[in-house]
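Exercise 7. Given the components listed, write out the predicted structure of the assembled complex. Treat all entries as one system.
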Amino acid sequence: MDEQLSFEEGLNRLEKIVQTLETGGLTLEEALSLFEEGMHLAKICSERLDAAELKISQLQTAFEEAIENKGESPC
Amino acid sequence: MKIYSVAEVTGYLRELLETDSLLADLWISGEVSNLSESAAGHLYFTLKDEASQLRCVLFRRGRLALPLEGGVAVVAHGRISIYEVAGTLQFYVDLVQPEGIGILHLEFERLKAKLEEEGLFDVARKRGLPPFPRRIGVVTSPTGAVFSDIANIISRRYPLVELVLSPTPVQGDGASEGIVQAFEALNETEGIDLVILARGGGSLEELWAFNEERVARAIFSSKAPVISGVGHDTDFTIADFVADLRAPTPSAAAELAVPHRSELESRIQSHRRSLLAALWGEISQRRSGVDYMAGRLKSLSPDVDRYRQRIEELTKLASMHLGSFLAINREKLRSQQMQLSTLSPIATLSRGYAQVQHSTTWEVISRIAQVHRGDVIDVRVSDGQFKGKVTGLRKGLQAWMSNFPSKKG
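Answer.
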């Protein structure tokens, strides 16, 4: 699950887990396994933030072709 | 050659006028004269200057920024067409402003009022921004500092994003068309969940593209919500009014577009603490449950020490009782043995009595009738037995007693 999970999904799941744990009414086994999952998610989310690098791409528009052809700046 | 009807000519003229892009949307300045109002509420007047005049009509739904009266200098917006019934050229006015205001300002106010009326600025139609955008489209110039500023800010705050630059000129001829195309290109791009429309500061003229109607409509029809960040804090453009969120500057737009990583980190940290606290709660709740039950169990369970002591006491008591029981019984046994021994035939025999039995039938003889003269009898004494023969019989106890040797002698 870790690899496919987006940051947002991870954080949402983490929030849900915190909520569920805080609501209580679980068996100790359930609470422990949620706790472990939550800690794991917190780690993954932190790591995602640390490891991320902004990706930049550029669409090809008519304008972009025009300035490439002319080789001049628009403003 | 062909002969045309009047209607054909006026119709032709009308088509000619209405397909001309300049005449379809223009501002004309002049002085109001010959003002009249029809019963339906439409205003008819003439705009004139020193050289010429033009018939005008302002339908009731048109807007007046000032009370209209003869001699007032105004700037009117509308379109030129022909009123075929009268065969006259007419200026169909939709907005009248007092003269002296710059044309760009006039146009700004006109478009703003128009789009507002159409509902393009409705708060109800503003879309919420995604809390964690993944692909952000940026409509701006590929050159200049704006895009790299946006990229820097987003990279610092929330680098889990892909920025997709949709390049366009942002001023001059072709800027509004470029912006429209940039939006179209983003609409066709997969997964764009937010668009930033940005341009650095400039004069009203330089920012003009952002006040054009087609740009407003491009923003309005963008698939993803749009943040506008055009010019400086003090600049307001039509684009700002249409955008789902107006940021005062391009940098501010970038900041509004994404969450801040430090915020997220502290959120994650607080979740960690909550997890720990919740688990601790679960455990301590159970521990106190166990403690409570253990306490109850202790209070309910028998006091083993007490019982052990009791058992010891009982054992002691039992052994004591057993001892005396044995002693008593031993004593009883002895007396019974004694009693038994006095009752025993041997004891009787040793006192001089004898047991007499028939030597053939082994019948014990206790009465005289059991024997006859001549019977052989077995006589048992304390230390042996002997045989005898009955030689005489005498009935009665007296007879037996008289045989007893006298004790006197």
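Discussion: The beta strands of chain A are 55-58. The radius of gyration of chain A is 22 Å.
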